[in-house]
Amino acid sequence: MVRFTCKDQASAEAFDQLTGQIVEKIRENEPGTLVYATHLVEGQPLQRIFYELYEDRVAFDTHEAQEHTRHFLNARDDLLTSVEVDFLHLQAGKGTTE
């Protein structure tokens, strides 16, 4: 899970355009990326949350090595004030294989 905070409204709009581009590339090219969901945060117009679920660590590493991911990581820096990353490990849930 990743929480992004954009610098201002113009940066948020540019970040959303950048996000749309990477999501399309992920859909087309990353079968090991099971879920890549981007969210607006109610009451926090400059925040975005991504929830990402990968088949395994290899799928995550493959995602990170993609040209479109590298472009996203480099382009986002000028638009953001902070990035918070949490790696989650499933404890229990519905709709999971564990």
Counting DSSP E segments of at least 2 residues, the number of strands comes to 4
Number of domains: 1
CATH topology: Alpha-Beta Plaits
**Shape estimate:** globular
Mean pLDDT: 94
CA distance, first residue to last residue: 19 Å
Give the second-level CATH assignment, the architecture.
2-Layer Sandwich
Largest beta-sheet characterization: 4 strands, antiparallel
Keywords: Monooxygenase, Oxidoreductase
Domain ABM: 1-90
Protein name: Quinol monooxygenase YgiN
GO molecular function: monooxygenase activity
Structure write-up:
The chain is an alpha+beta fold. It has one domain: Alpha-Beta Plaits. The chain is built from 3 helices and 4 strands. The protein has helices spanning 9-29, 57-65, 67-76, and strands at residues 2-6, 33-41, 44-54, 80-85. Helix 1 (9-29) packs antiparallel against helix 3 (67-76). The protein is globular and about 35 Å long. The two termini are 19 Å apart. 7% of the residues are buried. The mean pLDDT is 94. This is Quinol monooxygenase YgiN. Residues 1-90 form the ABM domain. One of its GO terms (molecular function) is monooxygenase activity. Keywords: Monooxygenase, Oxidoreductase.
